[in-house]
Amino acid sequence: MQISHYNLFFAHFFLPKYDSRLCLFPRSIIMSVLPPVRKDRIVGQFPKCFKKEAALNTEQDFQSKVKTACLQQRTGTVGRFKISKVIVVGDLAVGKTCLINRFCKDVFDKNYKATIGVDFEMERFEVLGVPFSLQLWDTAGQERFKCIASTYYRGAQAVIIVFDLTDVASLEHTRQWLEDAMKENDPTSVLLFLVGTKKDMSSPAQYTLMEQDAIKIADQMKAEYWALSALSGENVREFFFRVASLTFEANVLAELEKSGSRRIGEVVQISSNSDNLYKTSKKKQSNCCQ
Ligand SMILES: Nc1nc2c(ncn2[C@@H]2O[C@H](COP(=O)(O)OP(=O)(O)OP(=O)(O)O)[C@@H](O)[C@H]2O)c(=O)[nH]1
Ligand SMILES: [Mg+2]
User: EC no. (predicted)?
Assistant: First the structure.
């Protein structure tokens, strides 16, 4: 689903209850807007990282409490009406649009057409039997469009910082892109990915040198490193499956934590005042205002 500026205009003015921080739309809108999950978007196994030395997680499988929650359909808003926002940032012409287009539409355009402001694509997955949607925001790298694009950074659950494997300056600039993206987001809850594109254009010797530097930067940023090619498609699907799975797992864990803390609150209330079991929220409010 290619969203033009007219579509963004529509989203802003005609979806009034959209909460950009939580990425929550009313369920009726989600049901009518989202396409069904494609067969090739079903994630059954935990996707592997690209490089163990620059990975967010080196586990072989989803956490067992996540698998149990999915089996028991206890995933809260995940799988029902929550959409996770992913922003894609990086210098101009590094290949952000081509990367998204290769994954979402399986096309590649060799002609450069600068993104003006932002575009977004919606991708639906099914992870461990639970439907899960990613909203992929493709932002402009050109300086003159940066201020428009940066207004869409807020509320991201994952940030993909892209550089060109044949252009060392674009790798150096990734620190600045990270800083800008983090001004609008909570660094403790955002998943970071550092992605080198145009692998098909890089000679093995050039690639090895670039990868050493990229892994160092990824480590400092606490990001997961990937190298891929939108032209050949190498690693593109694997990468987005990894983004979807890690984001999904983080969302389910957050839901489990939320429902766990609600239960703990109830137990405290029951033992402290057995006369009225429904006073939990009032008591909490008065405590927090003291
Ligand atoms: N050989 C090769 N060329 C690529 C690859 N990815 C992108 N390109 C080319 O790089 C140029 C820029 O690609 P875009 O995807 O438009 O770059 P962008 O990062 O979206 O640029 P802005 O929208 O200006 O920020 C185009 O000419 C693409 O064809 C790749 O993996 N391999
Ligand atoms: Mg673009």
Answer: 3.6.5.2
